[in-house]
Each structure stands twice: as C-alpha cells, then as structure tokens.
Amino acid sequence: MKRFVFVGILVIGMLCVFTSLGTSVSQTGVTLYFTDAQVMKLIPVRMAIPETTAELQAKIVIGELIKGRDENMSIRRTIPKVRNGITVRVENEIAYVNIKKEIQKQHREGRDLELLTVYSIVNSLTSIDGITCVRFTIDGKQQKDFMGYIDMRETFIPDYMI
Q1: What is d(CA 45, CA 120) in angstroms, rounded to the nearest whole number?
Q2: Segments of 39-145 assigned E as strands
Q3: Cα–Cα distance between 35 and 162 in angstroms, integer?
Q4: What is the value of pTM for the model shown?
Q5: Residue 86 burial (CB count, 10 A)
Q6: 101-118 pLDDT per residue, tens
Q7: How far, in Å, CA of 156 to CA of 101, rounded?
Q8: How many C-beta atoms lie closer than 10 Å to residue 30's C-beta?
C-alpha cells in the first residue's frame, strides 16, 4: 500500500517537474470505459496519459476510472470513490487488481452493474500496451464472486460487446 502511494506521488512529482521545465512528456492513448447515463452499456472514452511502464499507466487508468468524468453527465463511473480502494500491479502482461472490501460494500447491487464494473476495469486496463488480461482479488484474496454474480477466480480478457 505504501509503495502504491509512493509511486503515485513519484509519478505526479515527475510530471510536475517536466511541466515546469517546459519539457514535454511523451504521451500515449488509452481507452477508458465508463457506463452510459442509463447504466446499460459501456462507453469508450479516449485519453492521453504519460508514456511509461504498463504498471504506472495501469495505476493512472484506475485512478481515472475512480475519479470519473463529472463534467460529462452522459457517462458515469461504475466504481465507488474509495480512497486507495483499488491497487494494481502488472506482471507478464497480466494486471493483478486488488479491490478493497469497502468498494464491494459501497457498490450498488445488480448483475448488470457488476458486469459493467468488472469490464470497465478489464477493458480499460487491456487498452494499455503490455496488458492482455486481468485477474482480481478482494482484500488480497481470491474470491468466488464480486457481488454474487461474476466468478472472480477467472482470468478476464476484454469484452467490447458489453
């Protein structure tokens, strides 16, 4: 946990230094997946992020998914805003996502919303070069399901039909 916070502060600090020096940071495009206003399907939103390691990009993407796009009322975030509620590490092209139990408790019920939340994360992370699939844990442990519907023991690949 402390390492995640340290890395986040380090990335933000580096971006501030580069910006203040007038040095441009190379950017790459990723696609974030939010839900539509009716919470029926995922909506792709392109975004530029710093070109860095897949793991640092994954941390940025998770932060953006939690932050949401408040200025655009036609899309909504699926993940409850919980401080440090999700951590991610990348190994061998797999993003390992750990969700705090608190997010699970604050998440609204329903099979469709659970599906949208999981694939919002999966589709967004796999839009990063170097990430091909996602594995989930809850409070560091593999769980049978997230909210009672989706088997979280699986390795997830993107599904753009959701």
Answers
A1: 11
A2: 42-50, 75-76, 86-91, 94-99, 133-138
A3: 10
A4: 0.81
A5: 19
A6: 887 776 777 678 888 999
A7: 20
A8: 22
